[in-house]
Amino acid sequence: MSSARDAGVLTVSGERLLGDLRHLATIGGTAGGGVNRPAYGDEDLAAREVVSQWMRAAGLAVRVDTAGNTFGRLPSANDAPPIVIGSHTDSVPDGGRFDGALGTLAALEVARTVAQHGMTLHHPLEVVNFQNEEGGLIGSKAVAGQLSADDLALKAVSGFTIGEGIRRLGGEPDRLAAAVRAPGSIAAYVELHIEQGRVLERAGADIGVVEGIVGISYWEVTFDGIPAHAGTTPMADRHDALLAAARFVEAVNRTIVTLPGQHVGTVGRLTVFPGAPNVIPGRVTLTLELRDLDQQHIDALFAVVAREAERIAVDAGTTVALRPTTAVTPAPTDARVRGAIAFAACLHGLRSLDMPSGAGHDAQNMAAIAPSGMFFVPSVDGISHSPREFTSDADVVKGANILLGTVLRLDVTM
Amino acid sequence: MSSARDAGVLTVSGERLLGDLRHLATIGGTAGGGVNRPAYGDEDLAAREVVSQWMRAAGLAVRVDTAGNTFGRLPSANDAPPIVIGSHTDSVPDGGRFDGALGTLAALEVARTVAQHGMTLHHPLEVVNFQNEEGGLIGSKAVAGQLSADDLALKAVSGFTIGEGIRRLGGEPDRLAAAVRAPGSIAAYVELHIEQGRVLERAGADIGVVEGIVGISYWEVTFDGIPAHAGTTPMADRHDALLAAARFVEAVNRTIVTLPGQHVGTVGRLTVFPGAPNVIPGRVTLTLELRDLDQQHIDALFAVVAREAERIAVDAGTTVALRPTTAVTPAPTDARVRGAIAFAACLHGLRSLDMPSGAGHDAQNMAAIAPSGMFFVPSVDGISHSPREFTSDADVVKGANILLGTVLRLDVTM
Predict the structure, then answer these.
(1) Which residues of B touch A214 (CB under 8 A)?
(2) Strand A70-74 to strand B331-332: parallel, antiparallel, or no bridges (unpaired)?
(3) Do both A282 and A384 map to the same domain?
(4) What residues of chain B, 271 to 310, have a C-beta less than 8 Å from chain A?
(5) Is the same domain home to B358 and B308?
(6) Residues A263 and A389 in one domain
(7) Which domain holds residue B313?
(8) Is B270's CB within 8 Å of A242's CB?
(9) Label partner for B167 (CA 20 to 30 A): which of A133, A175, A335, B60?
(10) Nearest chain B alpha carbon to A195
């Protein structure tokens, strides 16, 4: 019998974890080596059931909350608030087998390792499998008390509404309040995830300690010109909405690249009206999104871009309107959790790098109610949401060991 | 009784012509003051029938050729090849009441004036109402021997195929060859049309003498980058197909505006893939069209644009492919016909301006088989293909008088 207090270099069973990952990838497995498990579909349900069985086999007490999230709990000797670790097992259509699955199964392996060694932690340890992460972080949103009754009517990719989906998972959509965890009721939340980018790979780092999950602000931008005959309208008489929009796309890129910071900015959708080869475009609508860890920085970037838009519109003889649509607030991670992750990495002799998470994760909802942290392992070529998504066995095992080390560290520091 | 030889200042009945225009606009008339007469639809047939009745009432011998075009012929004393004048009465969906109708009814009014005055011209005078101008100059294409059997299967806006449409008009799609007019068999072709641009309005000119109908070359341009996550892909790692395409749109405009000439260039359609706000565009397809009176000039412009495209693609980390699609050869008008139009304008004390036609017209097909010319009257604000298309009564009558003067002049010069 060893105790958590002196188990700094305790390690998980890499073989067992890799075996679990391989097995889970067969549920909804696709020909290309990926998985197709959109939330609430049969494959999603089957995968969740398998994970629940593994939790029970590891000695965890499994329950599904009213929002349909699965928690497997390893009790502690006393009544301290739990440390929660985990991720999700749903996927985008034709997605990869690491996104979410790695964090969920590594958390299970950590709990299994703790249980197997007969350790008694100060905090209960909960392994969570959030539902419908890919469709908008729905499960963790409910846990943070931010899922509204209106959201239940939204249709998920699988065709079920979120309300129907929660029922399929064994939840009770009419009693969402019962799934909410109060601020202070969770000691810490930690999530391991694949990077979905190339920052670690390029830097030659083993793990990325997430400084925060970036905020995202979206705008719908409309340039209005005058549609006209492409043959009979001399160049000087044109009010070409696409010319203005093209200059705007270039200006967004120039602004983003020129100004210092880790921010990114993207025009991902652009639609031309009427969109005929022989008609000068009269209207273009496009989306602008800006991401950064600091909302004030996003606002400052937008101010520059909006000024450019006005200048471009006047110049091209069009008008422009920039309408804010959705926005996600930046979610900084907790310094103590970041410290525990870095400590564990150090203990295993691994090189860590501080970095923002450009993608959304359940950790950002959990950050609203608990000290939260997150870390990445490299994904080859930064590919994700694709059957080509890949993380090496070595990195998978490194990630799980750091998660174990982080839990043990947090158990004594939080 | 006057003869054509000394009737230089003979004029049409403006009131009669304006009445005809008003009457025709009630057939397929729309609430906004426009007309909806897509080729081969019931309204198109009804309008053509009314024009045929008016031709007969004016003493013209009416026949429908095997391609479905209507000709009304005023015989001459001798066997000379005819002078052909006219245009079309079909419209785009929800189009204007002057495009085509003006040229057809002005031609009818010219023939009616000649007949009414008991003139005997040297050349027979034929008034033509071409079929399906808006769907690709189909009727005149047949007359020039360029309509193929394959074309007959193409579906027009009205839902009928061209073959079905020709039958509905009383033609014989199986005997298209009988509609072909041999080179040399027509003394001259003249068409009056609204400008569909603002050149005349801006210049304060009464008519535009068309130097030629521009050639149009089309390309389908594809930029291929790499689609990637808009949150996790740093700016430096991107291969953004939309950024490249935006720079291309700007480069096309810059090239066209900078290089000397009357050419125009347009990117009218642009499609982004996958087109999601949070995905860096992996592919953009767009259309490029260049128009000029001189094919070599179009080719030279394209060479510059293509070089820019290559440079932009390399710079943005994308590839680019420029694939030529359809092309229409420039159709210069005949100097003698242009001279006759300018002569008639001068006789009426009107100011004429030489200009290219940026839009396609039946005259460009007729130019392949006969000395052809064309002239424009102003259209307010350059609006066409719209219920807001408008030409003043005064300009309508001026146009018809110049057409009459042109015919009388050509009758002695050709």
Answers:
(1) 231
(2) unpaired
(3) no
(4) 271-272, 275-281, 287, 289, 291
(5) no
(6) no
(7) 215-328
(8) yes
(9) B60
(10) B232
Whose tokens are 């003889």? That residue is: A317
pLDDT tens for chain A, 414 residues: list them.
Answer: 333 334 447 999 999 999 999 999 999 999 889 999 999 999 999 999 999 999 999 999 999 999 999 999 999 988 899 999 999 999 998 899 999 999 999 999 999 999 999 999 999 999 999 999 999 999 999 999 999 999 999 999 999 999 999 999 999 999 999 999 999 999 999 999 999 989 999 999 999 999 999 999 999 999 999 998 899 899 999 999 999 999 999 999 999 999 999 999 999 999 999 998 989 999 999 999 999 999 999 999 999 999 999 999 999 999 999 999 988 999 999 999 999 999 999 999 999 999 999 999 999 999 999 999 999 999 999 888 889 999 999 999 999 999 999 999 999 999
For B158-280, list the strands marked E by DSSP: 188-194, 207-213, 215-224, 228-229, 264-266, 270-273, 279-280
C-alpha distance from A358 to closest chain B C-alpha (Å): 4
Beta bridge mates, A284: A223, A272
Based on the domain organization, do A283 and A229 belong to the same domain?
yes
What is the rounded CA–CA span in Å between residue B116 and residue B120?
A: 11
- CATH code, A287: 3.30.70.360
Tokens of B163: 């073959």
**Cα–Cα distance measured from residue B336 to residue A259, given in angstroms and rounded to the nearest whole number:** 63
> What's the CA gap between B221 and B128, in Å, rounded?
39
- Please report the ipTM that was assigned to this predicted complex: 0.84
Summarised one tens digit per residue, pLDDT across range A147-158 is 999 999 999 999
CATH number for A375: 3.40.630.10
What are the distances in angstroms from CA B310 to CA B256, B297, B315, B322? 17, 20, 9, 10
Smallest CA-to-CA distance from A48 within A83, A13, A100 is with A100
Cβ-contact A134, A95 below 8 angstroms? yes
Interface test with A, best of B201, B223, B229, B232 (most A CBs within 10 A): B232
Closest CA to B184 of B6, B394, B21, B414: B414
| Cβ neighbours of residue B56 closer than 8 Å, sequence gap 6 or more | B62, B72
Residues A207 and A230 in one domain: no
Query: Do the beta carbons of residue B130 and residue B57 sit within 8 Å?
Result: no
What are the distances in angstroms from CA A277 to CA A5, A229, A386, B219, B289?
A: 71, 10, 34, 10, 7
Domain boundary among the residues A304, A328, A352 is at A328
Structure-token pair, residue B40: 């081969």
Identity of the amino acid at A365: N
E strand or H helix at B283? strand B283-292
Total tally of structural domains belonging to chain B: 2
Task: Give pLDDT tens digits for B225-276.
Answer: 999 889 989 999 999 999 999 999 999 999 999 999 999 999 999 999 999 8
Residue B195 shares a structural domain with residue B126? yes
Residue A175 CB coordination number (10 Å) = 12
**What does the block give as tokens for B61?**
């011998």
**Which of A266, A291, A293 should be substituted to probe chain B, the one whose Cβ sees the most B Cβ atoms within 10 Å?**
A266
- Distance (Å) from the C-alpha of residue B51 to the closest C-alpha of chain A? 28
Quote the minimal CA–CA distance from A95 to chain B in Å: 13
CA distance A56 to chain B (A): 35
Are A152 and A282 contained in the same domain? no
A204/B93 Cα distance (integer angstroms): 62
Interface of A with B in 316-345 (CB under 8 A): none
State the pairing for strand pair A83-88/A188-194. Answer: parallel
The domain boundary, picked from A273, A300, A328, lies at: A328
CA A302, chain centre distance (Å): 24
- What whole-number distance in Å separates Cα of residue B107 and Cα of residue B375? 13
CB A355 within 8 A of CB A405: no
Chain A neighbors of B250, CB-CB under 8 A: 243, 246-247, 250
